[in-house]
Amino acid sequence: MKVLVPVKRVVDYNVKVRVKADGTGVETANVKMSMNPFDEIAVEEAVRLKEKGVATEIVAISAGPSAAQEQIRTALAMGADRGILVEHDGTLEPLAVAKILKAIVDKEGPALVILGKQAIDDDMNATGQMLAALLGWGQGTFASKVEKDGDNLKVTREVDGGLETVSLKLPAIVTTDLRLNEPRYASLPNIMKARKKPIETVKPGDLGVDVTPRLTVLKVEEPAKRQAGKKVGSVQELVEKLRTEAKVI
Amino acid sequence: MDHNQPHAASEETRMLRDLVAKFVERDLMPLEPAVLKREATGGGFKLSEEEEKTLLARCQELGLWGLDVPEEFGGANLPLLSLAAAEEEMARACVPFTIPPDSPNLHMMLSVASPLQRAKYLDPYARGEQRSAMAISEPGAGGDPAGMTTRAVKDGDHWVINGRKIWVSNVPRADFIILMARTGDGKRQDGITAFIVEKGTPGFVIEREIPMVGGRRTYELVFEDCRVPAENVLGELGRGYAPMQLRLNVRRMQMGARCIGMARRALEMMTEQAQNRVTWGVRLADRQAIQWFAAEAVMEIHACRLMVQDLAAKLDAGADVRMEASILKVRATEMAQSVLDNAMQTWGAMGVTKELPLQLMHQQVRLMRVYEGPSEVHRSAIGRRTLGGKV
């Protein structure tokens, strides 16, 4: 089966994010950018499915600026077979990305789309679910285990208070949680091989998708500075303060 | 702004840098505390056999092997620009490990080795199965090869070598050394020939181990009627010096990159301390003295990185880079020395303990200011070339 893996270009998880001086967003100029870690887990899972003989072809897709090719190339170095870049410079909201992905799914006809449960930049946690709704496919979100089960896919989900197992009819959408796997490093020989793998570039307009934002960002600001804590001298004083000041007991 | 985000010449270079950075973070950094403790308690600046084996296996798995080795020898044949990025990342960890093989000798051998030498020495060396060392300096002849007195005399189909070499690194583990010896009476570097001498050749004696600062060790070697087959002459007779220069220029590029890696680590640690440490109610980060340390470090790291990239690109293009190599060698080592020193100062008493890597890196850079040509020799060379001086 063919597997589609959408990957998002985000500010690297090691970078301390800064808000732009004019409050319109976060600073991304000259900042190290990487593949969204949840999407890395998705690529790893797709590659494992291919190694098990379940997947036959892996297509990595990114919607974003031309530099998002870097993230596609990383996916190719991890084991994806080819890439599609949907080039767009402005804001892309989850619904726009879901529509783009739907258009590509219609064209490519994959049996599985596997993607991160959310991106670490805006933490929307929406694209996978929206895509499932647009396609009318089943979805297994927050996956911590994915297994082929006959014609179905058995997905273990991390839910509040435990694990839930769902059986999905293919084609389906899976979104990945942190504990699904530990992504491999792209080894040097695979980095070299990735050079020769093709990346196709299209525009949202070519796919007939209108990506005009539906939301307006009013202001972005940094979280309030954390107040310094208080030191207490004894357990008695601690209990006293918890009761009278914090009012939690 | 992220000044640690250098311009990448290619996607491969960028991805290689990411790969090496991950390797350093996940495989090398966790070893650092144990390595520092071992060194501080007299166990030497080294890895245990087990640690080294694990790292080598990891490198093999990730393909971090023979980065600039040609494909015909099973290497990745990356441009030196990529090698520089890898070196820089590797140097952030104070752990005695390099991605095999040690490449400077490789470049000299690649340029001049005979078919026989390629099969016997270069092949296993390029695969990382053999190690080598390079013996140039002598007591009384270091940066200036004119004083070299080790002599090789032809005797039938052998050369007989007599003399003494000093400050040679990597000797005990080297399967062969490249030895420079006089075979003719030319001026300065004329008449110097390179020989491949195998470990265990009769007359090749490791005289003593010399402990150096920074946990390093070098060796003094004695050659007494050491007979080397004529086929072990590496390159042209009497013209061994120029190919050796080729080795040195790559080496200086690597040293420059390593200095940047160490300085980056020092700056990271300086930043961490400056943001956390409060004295008399003020964070160090808000004190001008410390801000200037940081500013100096950022500017110098940036300048040196541009020099490394320029040198690497020119080396890849086959240009004569002696001037660029000299400039980088002096500037990068002195830059790293100063940044490390300021980082230690920022950390106060903690900075001069053997629990932090700063002191060991500081000593290692101190050493780097001397080997592969002391700063003063390079400064003289730069000045002489500029002014047309004679000496």
From TrEMBL, chain A:
Taxonomy, superkingdom: Bacteria
Keyword Electron transport: yes
Key words of the record: Electron transport, Transport
Gene3D superfamilies: HUPs
Gene Ontology terms, MF aspect: electron transfer activity
Pfam families to which the protein is assigned, alphabetical: ETF (PF01012)
GO biological process: carboxylic acid catabolic process
Cofactor: AMP
Domain Electron transfer flavoprotein alpha/beta-subunit N-terminal per the UniProt entry, residue ranges: 23-211
Function: The electron transfer flavoprotein serves as a specific electron acceptor for other dehydrogenases. It transfers the electrons to the main respiratory chain via ETF-ubiquinone oxidoreductase (ETF dehydrogenase).
Family according to the record: Belongs to the ETF beta-subunit/FixA family.
Subunit description: Heterodimer of an alpha and a beta subunit.
Protein name: Electron transfer flavoprotein subunit beta
Organism: Neoroseomonas marina
Automatic annotation (TrEMBL), chain B:
Ranges annotated as spanning the membrane: none
Residue ranges of domain Acyl-CoA oxidase/dehydrogenase middle in the record: 133-226
Cofactors, names only: FAD
Domain Acyl-CoA dehydrogenase/oxidase N-terminal span(s) in chain numbering: 10-129
Keyword DNA-binding: no
SUPFAM superfamilies membership: Acyl-CoA dehydrogenase C-terminal domain-like, Acyl-CoA dehydrogenase NM domain-like
All residue ranges annotated as the Acyl-CoA dehydrogenase/oxidase C-terminal domain in the record: 238-386
Any one annotated GO CC term: cytoplasm
GO biological process, one term: fatty acid beta-oxidation using acyl-CoA dehydrogenase
Pfam families: Acyl-CoA_dh_1, Acyl-CoA_dh_M, Acyl-CoA_dh_N
InterPro entries the UniProt entry points to: Acyl-CoA_dehydrogenase (IPR050741), Acyl-CoA_Oxase/DH_mid-dom (IPR006091), Acyl-CoA_Oxase/DH_mid-dom_sf (IPR046373), AcylCo_DH-like_C (IPR036250), AcylCo_DH/oxidase_C (IPR009075), AcylCoA_DH/ox_N (IPR013786), AcylCoA_DH/ox_N_sf (IPR037069), AcylCoA_DH/oxidase_NM_dom_sf (IPR009100)
GO MF annotations, alphabetized: acyl-CoA dehydrogenase activity; flavin adenine dinucleotide binding
Keywords, ordered alphabetically: FAD, Flavoprotein, Oxidoreductase
UniProt record similarity statement: Belongs to the acyl-CoA dehydrogenase family.
Protein name: Acyl-CoA dehydrogenase family protein
